[in-house]
Amino acid sequence: SWLENGGHIFVTGTSGTIFGQKVERINANDFEGLGLLKLTAKERRMILGNDLHIELADGMEVMGSQIQMAEYTVDSEQVLGKILYGHGNRNDGTEGAQAGNLIWTNLLGPVMVKNPWWACRILADIADRKGLAYTMPEASDFELESASLKAVKEYLILKQEKKD
Predict the structure, then answer these.
(1) Contact by Cβ (8 Å): 62, 107
(2) What DSSP string describes 52-63?
(3) Which helix (H) or strand (E) segment is 149 a member of?
(4) Which of 139, 138, 58, 64 is nearest to 108 (CA)?
(5) Is the pLDDT of residue 1 over 80?
(6) What residues does 154 pair with on adjacent strands?
(7) pLDDT tens-digit profile of 97-140?
(8) Is 88 left (phi over 0), alpha (psi -120 to 50) or beta?
(9) Of 65, 44, 43, which Cα lies nearest the Cα of 53?
(10) What's the CA gap between 154 and 70, in Å, rounded?
(11) What is the DSSP string of 102-131?
(12) Most buried among 20, 32, 52, 68, by the most CB within 10 A?
């Protein structure tokens, strides 16, 4: 398969459900997914939309927005990251899933443009697996995006304080 041969797949939003094991529909027309991720999606009547800020396993912070139509149960070994702000998969403090070269997240908006450090890390991984040279950009190359992340984090703190 593509993944077994070193290919990468990056999936965002609701389209990730097809890569899971099962989708449970409100109308009972459940179906099996591809089974590439250990997750189950359960469609809900309410659609959630909000900012989403997560921390990946290595401490990298990424941010975007989300529009979510399902609750997801993800095997703990495949969780992509922990939520710093937002709803995430199942209101359990986790977000997304990763199995080898397959990454799925509810982050949208445009996730790679807002988080170029993550895009570069994924590209570095692809280059490494292919035996290609890749030089990671310097942190200063992301000055504008880093300032944007900082501004949005400050906004989310204020937004959370208003809720409390």
Answers:
(1) yes
(2) EEEEETTS-EEE
(3) helix 143-163
(4) 64
(5) no
(6) none
(7) 999 999 999 998 789 999 999 999 999 999 998 899 999 999 89
(8) left
(9) 65
(10) 28
(11) EEEES-BSSHHHH-HHHHHHHHHHHHHHHT
(12) 52
